[in-house]
Amino acid sequence: VLLLLVGFWGNDIIRLLFPKTDIVIYPSWRILLFLFTLLTIWNTNIRTIFLGLQEFVVYNLSALFRLLFVYVPVILLLYFTSRLTVTTALFSAILSFVVVFIANLYLFQKGFKIVLNFGREARWFVGRLLSTGSRSLASNLAGLLLLRSDFYLIAYLGGGAYDVGLYALAVNLIEMAGRLPKYAGIVLFPKVSSDKTGKTLFLVRKLFWIFGSISVVVGALIFTLPGVFKWLIGGLFGERFVASYPALLALTPRVILQTATSPLAENLAGKGYPWYHPVGMVVGLALNIPLNFLLIPQYGIVGAGIASSISFIPTFIIYFIGFLKINKVKLSFFIGK
């Protein structure tokens, strides 16, 4: 319902919230954006079930298959025939999601003998989902506002589509860098949570240092090799987007903290203390919004990046203290053997 509202009345909402911006949703994109988002959610749900079953081969191969055998070939075909536009790119992504969703659904029912139905058990499950999902929704909404409110504030404070686009590119690039260690976590988190040897906390500590170290190395490369990263951005996206590099630098501390925090957050959620997540996000958001109002008018998208990095510090502290308290360990635990 929300997707339909944004799709058909999105431009009215944009004009109401951001009267100074030139951002618009083209009519031809509405149904495509709706299908793209809906299929993304469905595929994520199915793949998450494979992850819960610890079927890591299926989990990873489905994403690889969608990328290499459907999406990339179609994109290349459109590119070399000079028909690659935003509309055709969205269509290509939707086509790849449809193919993989059908394949995942087949594996889900045939490979694991799980039959989808809408009987009594399914209705009970939906009820439980709505009950527990409301808390999860509140948590993720706070996280979304913390990590994406700067997009809207750039537009609200007079930034145009170009400014928002530059900042969006910087955010996506730095979050891609942050995903590098998290890809290992996708496989390791279920193993850590199901560990029966009593070494769970030590495994979480190891993940904390591995994730943090990789993020620091990536961040150091971004800071020390500006020529390389500007060349990459210019080559991949065009020279106009090289201007996103300063925002990329400003966002680097945030992604280091965010990546290092994820093992601690997973541990707290797995032990029945998921409320640390919304508390951390809300506190960070409370700091992020005034910082954006203070820094964006003076420093533009770089100010938004600085605000985002600073505002994640209290979120990190809350997760860290929560981990120490719930697991009854001291700060020295992270330093000892």
Topology (elements, then pairings):
Blueprint: H1 2-17, H2 27-52, H3 56-80, H4 86-111, H5 120-156, H6 161-193, H7 200-224, H8 226-237, H9 245-270, H10 276-299, H11 301-327
Spell out the key features of this protein.
337 residues, mainly alpha, 11 helices, 82% helix
- Shape call: globular
Structural class: mainly alpha
- The first-to-last residue Cα distance is 52 Å
How many distinct helices?
11
Oligomeric organization of the protein chains = single chain
**Main beta sheet: strand number and arrangement?**
none
Helix content: over 70%
Structure description:
- This protein is mainly alpha-helical and 337 residues long.
- Helix content is 82%, strand content 0%.
- The protein is built from 11 helices and no strands.
- Helix 2 (27-52) packs parallel to helix 4, helix 5 crosses helix 11 and helix 6 runs parallel beside helix 9.
- The chain is globular and about 60 Å long.
- The N and C termini lie far apart (52 Å).
- The model has no long low-confidence stretch (mean pLDDT 79).
Structure summary:
By secondary structure, the protein is an all-alpha fold.
